[in-house]
From TrEMBL:
PANTHER family: LAMININ SUBUNIT ALPHA-LIKE PROTEIN (PTHR15036:SF67), PIKACHURIN-LIKE PROTEIN (PTHR15036)
SMART domains: LamG (SM00282)
Stated name of the protein: Laminin G domain-containing protein
Region Disordered, residue ranges: 1016-1038
Disulfide bonds listed in the record: 183-210, 554-581, 1376-1403
Organism: Dreissena polymorpha (Zebra mussel)
Length: 1406
């Protein structure tokens, strides 16, 4: 293929794959630089794996026969295996993969034909990874070359050959010169993408294009800028000269860069968003002196996503940054118009052809032309999305966000960067780092332990390289004799052999020394403490490094123990240019950016004249479908489909193809939130796979489904990979002539054909949500090229849903909207046949300012309060007739009017002094109900959840964003977002239960507990299992209705649900050095936990008040000694009651008092001035402290509540915490135990063995009729043990080889009273007893047992797939549990292997 022909057929995308026939050889321009790290990554397939072939070769020019010192990197195919060979100048190193490459002819799936290769050189270490695309990469194979050589001098004279070597080029004798035959693609050299048609030289012109390496389309329009280029677009220009706005998200480490620019060179008018010293700056010039500028108040170059919205209207300008800052300014008087409607827009930099001096001189102000290194996404101009691939050109811009791979970092005489430390404790350790500077002094690298007696460092002092090393005592300092501050790049390396230290510069030994004989290991902090370029101000390292002066120069390629330091991920940094280094202007007169590949003559691979969109994204409105006849399944044996989707809906058809003549079909559906792949091939050959988790949370989900004969695979979001074998029958799917349907099925398709033919359900429900990245048999699908689309739009519609359905037990929470203007309003439409139900509630945190609408006895009630004297007004007519009604509220100053269907039905007046209704705006607006446990009796006439429909919620309709976006709930549960299914009696169709039982087409090895289980009363017999249960007595009464709501303790918070939860309280040094009094109240059921903590920076000096073994213990340091003060009390402090602790330091004495009782007091002499620093930590400390804590300090948070913090008698409410983590509200009344909220679960043991004897007991308290207490289920679902509550009764179930045996209590136990249940299984006998009631027992038939069952044991709810065997309703447990004993072992909630949403510290009481 000629270059012109290739360009003609693929003008928009740089081709990255080529086909070679054994004669094709391509030479590329160099894209490497000197250093200690190199990498080659590519994919290939071949039909001749038995031939020796050169695939990639990098070597310096001029190599001659017998030359063993020339440096090169080569990847070959030798004896059917991939081999990586390199020479760093002292001899070769070789790594050969141990897998034989298989010919592409012998495989069917495209992903199994291709192999991915990654070859890396790190100093003298080589690493090679080879795997099929269909497999995951394993551990790399490694080898080393000659010791002492690490720097490879590849530069702008290096040759790069792909797919072979020209005949006139001499290669190293051990390499093959045979050319490659096959396909190659996705080539990266030193992390730079190589466009395989952007070559410098093409030998024999026999190369042709090859299919791209199979891969999924990119997820979204996210762009990675490499710091060298820019993107230019002429789309979405600013057509209005009066108004312009731009929105974008970015993340970067850089201080200075151009994010966006548009300008008119004729008039010097412009608008720009820039980074200046880390601040976001919005500036504009409209001509005639009208210049405006806004700067953010905070810096935003911390490599976190930042949202920026900038707009100008005339001279007025607004800048919003991450919803944290909202700034406004008025430009200087002059022109009001920005005339740039004909000018290009620039993102991430500005081309050199743009003369910025025009704008600088015209406005009299600076305009930045610095390119941007980082990521951007969500670009909008005047409300229109911007796709940079549709623009004119991109240079140095790639798809996605590059999170790693930066190799350089620049310092300018006053900065530092801190990383995770790496110890040098093995018998052979090494490190290397490259640097360049013209200054004589500067710190290169330092790593140390907390005490500062074990460390290693490299610096420049007077231009000499110095190294200091210590394993704990007798440090050594060694140095070079030559100077290296010449501005050139040098590599310094350290090699530690046992106690011997060698320093190399540019692969030459320059200094040696020996560590202490007894302390030859250098152990350093591994949670930080590795400093590059300098250290933080105030940190004294004079003992650990020859100089602490910050570097003015560049560092790169940091390698320690053969591991590459990721420059992208500093723990802390200041004034460090991460990812680039600007060398001194007098030296280079330009910026050196990492990485910096030189430009090829025909444009590098990351330059695109105009690239196509990243992916076609489609929005389905829930009413239609898309039909296509492209990309049909031509092979009847094999079919695969890939798609991404996001939705809130439980049930929908995602994909369907079927043959009505034979009733064969293949489908991907959503069933109750689970992803289901099903197919029918005729003659009874039906197969079905269901995901183990639900995926209807409106997050993007990737689905890959494939079938080969009866075998089928379903992969979901790289989280689940499931496989099944269909029922025996036909193996072929004959649909090569049939249309394919996405997102629904037309009414003209008779689905009963497929339902009757297969004997199983097929969904015809249309889909509401978004899809993207559609592929059939590895070919991308474009729905716009298909036959038809109904109810399908371009892009992903993230707003506009108007309806939401509730079924008597759900809610949805949104951002609140206050009604504080003199005229406010709200309206909402509803329909229901139930007399009671909450429509809407919004309130503040304290609950004294609120508005609500509810139905009570069919009447519309409104409750309103601005802070005191609430009012409640209601209609006289009832509206629970199943029709759609609209209720509106109008607030005129303090007057409130309620309208129903445009008629005034009630009026009232707010308090004269409190006429504004201010509510939470970060949440707290509830539709349809409220979360269980939230008491809103004072704010609404009823808290009962609605059974009906809501739609068209509008609040303050004169404002922007007045229509509530139903798509974007903060939280929701059992809410049908985007639709409402009205009651069956009203609409003659089924009302879907939020958690329906299994469908009739459930796999045969899943059995539902539909029939009455076997249960029988037995009399105790000697030595029988029930002897161990206790003496039977009568059981409790059936279920009783109890109150739902629980109260929270005012100004109290729960700590300890997360292991390291805490509040950070800022104090002054003066408050804590000589005298202080700190007191607080706490409540816990647990014997250990940290309450109060003060320390210095390295935690060698500290004061800690804690509960240890249920008593109060004060631990502190005095003159480097640990002092412990224990206060013994008459009762345990872990009794679930409130206790007070006060720590009082008065000059040279510190004391601690419990509950204000002097008998409960301990004291100790202490230094007059404490060596501790602010801040004060309450309830625990950050997880980063854990490795540094003294062994006498309890290393986890108090597991309970804290309130009433006082410092020197002054109350310090929780709102004053400057930093908080892992804290939650505190229940007013609690009991010992754990609380399960219906979705919570705890994994006791992921490989629990039932054995010959299984015995378990637990206490539970609930007011819910259904819920899983315990479940043990094998992976194949055929064997299980389950304990549950169903319709209030306790059921113990065993399923063995698909046979089910159950014991069921006669009485109900959901009366919100504690009950004890005991269950057991011994050989073939199962037994159960609740409280001291009847003992139920059954003996399993035959000789089957569960003694070999080894499976996860879950408490509470269970991942959904397991809940299908041993529970009838498949519902999570909602209630409390305590005193769980399994095989005589007490369960500690905090020792669970994993848990989800489980409240472990205590159980609430209503």
């Amino acid at each position: 293929m000629t270059m012109s022909h290739y360009t003609a057929i693929s003008i928009k995308k740089v081709k990255t794959s080529l086909s070679a026939d054994g004669k094709c050889v391509k030479k590329f321009r160099p894209m490497t630089q000197p250093g200690t790290i190199n990498s080659i990554r590519f994919a290939f397939k071949t039909s001749r794996p038995g031939q020796d072939m050169m695939m990639v070769l990098l070597q310096n020019q001029g190599i001659s026969n017998g030359d063993t010192e020339k440096e090169f990197l080569a990847v070959e195919l030798r004896d059917g295996r991939v081999r990586f060979t390199w020479n760093v100048g002292g001899g070769i190193g070789v790594v050969t993969d141990n897998k034989k490459v298989v010919s592409e002819v012998s495989t069917i799936k495209e992903s199994e034909k291709w192999y991915r290769v990654k070859a890396e050189r790190i100093g003298g270490l080589g690493r090679l990874t080879v795997h099929r695309l269909s497999d995951t990469a394993g551990a790399p194979i490694t080898n080393t070359s000659t010791v002492g050589f690490s720097l490879m001098g590849l530069d702008d004279t290096t040759d790069i050959f792909v797919s072979g070597v020209p005949q006139d080029v001499i290669v190293y004798p051990s390499l093959t010169s045979r050319n490659f035959s096959g396909c190659m693609g996705d080539m990266h050299i030193d992390e730079t993408l190589v466009g395989l048609f952007n070559f410098e030289r093409n030998t024999m012109d026999s190369c042709s294009a090859c299919l791209e390496v199979p891969s999924q389309p990119p997820a979204a329009n996210v762009y990675s800028f490499d710091g060298t280029g820019y993107a230019v677009t002429d789309k979405n220009r600013f057509l209005s000269p009066l108004i312009a706005n731009i929105i974008l998200d970015f993340k970067t480490y850089w201080d200075n860069a151009s994010l966006f620019f548009v300008g008119n060179p004729q008039t010097s008018e412009f608008m720009a968003i820039e980074l200046e010293n880390g601040f976001v700056v919005f500036k504009y010039y409209l001509g005639q002196g009208s210049y405006g500028r806004i700067q953010s108040e905070m810096k935003y170059n911390r490599n976190q996503w930042v949202s920026v919205a900038a707009a100008h209207s005339g001279l007025l300008a607004v800048l919003e940054v991450s919803k944290v800052e909202s700034l406004i300014t008025q430009g200087n008087p002059g022109d009001h118009l920005l005339n740039v409607s004909m000018n290009d827009l620039f993102f991430g930099g500005i081309p050199p052809s743009v003369n910025l001096d025009i704008y600088r001189k015209g406005s009299g102000h600076h305009v930045s032309g610095d390119s941007f290194l980082g990521c951007m996404r969500s670009l909008q101009l005047s409300s229109n999305a911007v796709n940079l691939w549709d623009g004119k050109s991109t240079i140095g811009v790639l798809e996605g966000c590059k999170e790693s791979g930066l190799r350089s970092i620049g310092f300018y005489g006053s900065g530092f960067a801190e990383y995770q430390g790496v110890s040098m404790i093995s018998s052979e350790s090494d490190l290397s780092i490259s640097f360049s500077t013209t200054e004589p002094d500067g710190l290169l690298l330092l790593a140390k332990n907390v005490n500062g007696d074990s460390y290693y460092s490299l610096v420049l002092k007077d231009g000499l390289v110095y190294g200091k090393f210590s394993g704990g005592r007798n440090p050594i300092s060694i140095n070079s004799k030559e100077r290296y501050n010449d501005g050139k790049v040098h590599t310094v390396a350290v090699r530690k052999l046992d106690r011997k230290i060698e320093i190399y510069v540019d692969d030459k030994v320059v200094a040696t020394g020996n560590l202490d004989r007894q302390l030859r290991d250098i152990a350093v902090r591994e949670d930080g403490g590795l400093y590059l370029g300098g250290v933080p101000e105030g940190l004294n390292v004079d003992d650990q490094a020859e100089t602490s002066k910050s570097l003015d120069g560049c560092l790169s390629d940091v390698v320690i123990n053969r591991g590459i330091l990721n420059i992208n991920q500093p723990k802390k940094y200041d004034r460090a240019d991460i990812g680039r280094c600007k060398l001194m202007e007098m030296q280079h007169d330009r910026m050196l950016v990492d990485p910096e590949p030189p430009l090829a003559s025909d444009a590098p691979s990351n330059i695109s004249p105009s690239q196509p969109p990243a992916a076609n994204v489609y929005s389905f409105d829930g009413t239609g479908y898309a039909v296509t006849d492209k990309n049909r399944f031509l092979s009847p044996l094999i079919a695969n489909i890939i798609l991404d989707f996001k939705t809130y809906w439980d049930n929908a058809s995602l994909f369907f193809v079927g043959n009505p003549q034979t009733s064969e079909f293949m489908a991907i559906e959503l069933e109750n939130g689970f992803v289901v792949f099903k197919y029918y091939l005729g003659q009874g050959s039906y197969g079905r796979i269901q995901s183990e988790m639900k995926y209807n949370r409106n997050q993007w989900v990737s689905v890959a489904a494939a079938r080969s004969g009866l075998l089928a695979v379903l992969k979901v979001s790289k989280v689940e990979s499931l496989i099944t074998q269909g029922n025996p029958g036909d193996r072929l799917l004959n649909v090569s002539m049939n249309d394919l349907f996405f997102g629904g099925i037309p009414p003209s398709v008779n689905l009963d054909i497929y339902r009757k033919g297969s004997g199983h359900h097929v969904s015809g429900d249309s889909f509401l949500g978004c899809m993207r990245s559609l592929q059939l048999s590895s070919n991308a699908v474009n729905l716009w090229d298909g036959k038809s689309t109904i109810g399908v739009l371009e892009g992903c519609k993230e707003s506009g849903l108007r309806s939401i359905g509730f079924y008597g037990s759900g809610f949805a929470e949104y951002q609140g909207v206050s009604m504080i203007s003199s005229e406010s309003d709200l309206s909402i439409s509803f329909s229901t046949t139930e007399p009671d139900g909450l429509l809407l509630l919004a309130k503040n945190v304290n609950g004294d300012s609120y508005y609500s609408l509810a139905l009570k006895d069919g009447l519309v009630y409104g409750k309103f309060s601005g802070g005191r004297n609430p009012i409640s007004i209601n209609s006289k007519e009832r509206y629970n007739d199943g029709k759609v009604h609209n209720v509106a509220v109008r607030k005129l100053d303090r007057k409130i009017e309620i309208y129903v269907d445009d008629k005034v039905v009630a009026t009232g007046n707010l308090d004269r002094q409190f006429r504004d209704i201010a509510v939470r705006e970060d949440g707290g607006l509830y539709l349809g109900g409220v979360p269980e446990g939230l008491n809103v009796d004072d704010q609404a006439e009823t808290s009962k959840s609605l059974d009906g429909c809501l739609s068209d919620v509008v609040i303050n309709r004169g404002k922007a964003n007045c229509i509530l976006n139903i798509n974007q709930p903060k939280k929701y549960d059992r809410a049908d977002i985007g639709r409402c299914k009205l009651m069956e009696m009203q609409h003659d169709r089924m009302l879907v239960d939020p958690e329906p039982p299994l469908a009739s087409d459930a796999p045969s090895n899943i059995r539902m507990l539909e029939v009455e289980p076997m249960s029988r009363k037995v009399k105790p017999t000697k030595n029988s299992l029930q002897d161990k249960m206790g003496t039977p007595t009568s059981g409790p009464t059936p279920c009783a209705t109890v109150a739902r709501s629980v109260d929270f303790q005012v100004d109290a918070l729960t700590f300890g649900e997360a292991d390291m939860s805490f509040h950070q309280i800022n104090t002054s040094k003066k408050e804590i050095l000589r005298k202080f009094e700190i007191s607080l109240d706490f409540r816990t059921f647990y014997q250990n936990g940290l309450l109060i903590y003060l320390s210095n920076l390295d935690h060698t000096e500290f004061v800690a008040a804690q509960i240890k073994d249920h008593v109060l213990v004060l631990v502190l340091t005095r003159n480097d000694d640990i002092k412990v003060v224990t206060v013994n009390t008459s009762t345990s402090l872990a009794d679930g009651q409130w206790h007070n602790v006060k720590v009082d330091k008065n000059l040279q004495r510190i004391s601690v008092v419990v509950d204000g009782n002097e008998e409960n007091m301990g004291s100790r002499k202490i230094a007059k001035v404490l060596k501790v620093e602010p801040p004060l930590f309450i309830g625990g400390v950050p997880s980063s402290f854990k490795p540094l804590l003294n062994e006498n300090v309890v290393a986890h948070s108090v597991r309970g509540c804290i309130r009433g913090l006082k410092i020197d008698g002054d109350s310090r409410p929780s709102s004053e915490a400057t930093l908080a983590s892992g804290v939650e509200k505190c229940y007013a009344k609690v009991e010992k135990g754990a609380y399960f909220n219906g979705e919570a679960w705890g994994l006791y043991d992921d490989k629990f063995s039932v054995g010959q004897k299984f015995k378990m007991e637990l206490d539970f308290r609930t007011n819910k009729a259904d819920g899983i207490l315990v479940n043990i289920t094998s992976q194949n679902l055929k064997n299980s043990i389950g304990l549950e509550i169903s319709k209030g009764k306790v059921i113990f179930t065993a399923v063995i080889a698909g046979q089910q045996f159950s014991l069921k209590s006669q009485n109900g136990f959901c009366d919100n009273v504690w009950h004890k249940v005991k269950v057991g299984m011994e050989k073939r006998t199962i037994a159960m007893q609740v409280d001291d009631g009847e003992i139920y027992q059954d003996t399993l038939a035959g000789d089957i047992t569960l003694s070999n069952l080894r499976a996860p044991l879950y408490l509470g709810a269970t991942p959904d797939v397991f809940a299908k065997v041993a529970s009838s309703r498949h519902r999570g447990y909602q209630g409390c549990m305590r005193d769980v004993i399994i095989n005589n072992k007490q369960v500690n909630w905090f020792d669970l292997q994993r848990s989800f949403s489980l409240q472990k510290t205590a159980c609430p009481v209503a």
